[in-house]
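Pilot study result, target chain (553 residues):
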Amino acid sequence: MAELLQKVGFKYEHEPEVSHPVAGKVTGKIPAYVRGSLYRNGPGMYEFGGRSYKHLFDGMALVQCFCISEKGATYQRRYVQSDSLRRSLSANAPVTSQFGTSEIPDPCKNIFQRYLTYFTSAPISDNTQVNVFPFNAGLYTSSETQYWNRLDPVTLETKEKVDLLDVGAINLATAHPHIDTDGTLFNVCHVFGKGLPTAVLKIPPKTDTSKCVGSMPKGGPLCRLDSPWKAHVHYHHSFCMTQSYIILINQPLLWNVPRLAFRKFTGDNPCSALRWFPEGTCRFRIIDKATGNEVHPDRKFEADAFFTFHTVNAYEDNGHIVLDAVCYKDAGIIDALYLKNLTSDVIEETFKRLDKPKIRRYVIPLNVDKPQSTDPSKEDFVNLKGIRATCKKTADHTFLCSPDVISDVSVEFPQINYNVHNGRMYRYMYGVGIHDDTTGLNSLIKFDMQTGKHITWRESGCYQSEPVFIANSETNTGQEASAELEDNGILLSAVNKRLPDGGSECFLLLLDAVNMTEVARVEFPGVANFPTDFHGSFASEAWTNKAASLDAQ
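Predicted structure:
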């Protein structure tokens, strides 16, 4: 393992489970309103029988849980018991196809059995190693396929595999669904049928068991948008939602669907079915949540080509949609995350050549029917005070949206005060900083989206996970409830630290989200390292107790 990767806390050997909660040692004071569970999800196992999966996104899902109260915190982690994991463990080889790794023959099968497998299509992976979130009374893990896995919120035991093909008639879904204020879940998906449509999946919050598929309420497509190509669809990792609209970013990174479908016969992995078209553009598609109709279907709101994993937020403002996303100039980051690049001596040069992600703000005006200038090509249809992003007409029914780059500081894994401000006007964003002097995610940053200014928390040798915001729910006598103040709360982050002597330690960090100063940290005896993770969420103690009681019935 390269020394550099040890410094950033990345490991791709088998991370052991921590099946029983480990009590932590608290330095500082945990606020009383931080009561609940922080769940984190990411890859924990790459190697089977001396052979390894090849991409950072391939490892088997390992979910961590930090159960927190003002009295302290406990820690545990368990693998999601997916069919992909079971098959690889049984064969003692990485026999299931993952994002960057082709399926290999199962060494436990004889020659005839292996021959027969070539007449069946490669199964879609149920290794849900990207995200974890509460929905209704269930805790679910997700990736970019048609499967979710439901876990016990207390023990992390895998309880159920959910097939979204049965729930909502879709084949691929983003890893980042949105949950509306009424509990309705939305996601952007692909359907491998006539027209190769992109669909917005809508799943209601109701729990009428007669309309459920397992634990999941029956849902369906809110809308379908046929692909403009015969054999390709756009890649989506996330999307935006406002109070009234769903916004898709159709970026010029495309799935080749036939190549994806026939990869078992060609020996390809799913990632090889992706192709970046640098001459292409991004197109914003706007769907009305109430009707399922596309807004201005006869017009194209486009932007120069960019790639994004993660949107930040979007909101409506005086006849405009303001959309923020963490953007790269191209999709080179995907190839850079093959393990051969992460463990080689060229990693520093590789990441120096890569474009660093920046926060961009795009504005889409909803009223473009009445030009206010005699030369429409020079007219900016954005009419918002303090906004530098523009939208100009470039051809009949085509408009070019040019962004405002909020800050020159690079950042990933954006988070906001989601429960109050998702889909609504907001001011603050939190993320993990990427600095020019390193290749690691080694700071936590708060951005003021109005001014572009930022505050940073950074400690030598530390590498942080995505920060998760917990609002202050306490009410001060005679004052406005503090939870109504957007940044009044705590940020939670799982931190790995490399010590000068080459050793390591880890801790759960609690920061004051107003000024980014440390409030408390919790260390867990016997736990020297947190596994690599991608995303997580916080569930209140009340939700966890309710979900656990329903799960026990």
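One observation from the pilot: The longest strand covers residues 36-45. A full batch analysis is planned for the follow-on phase.
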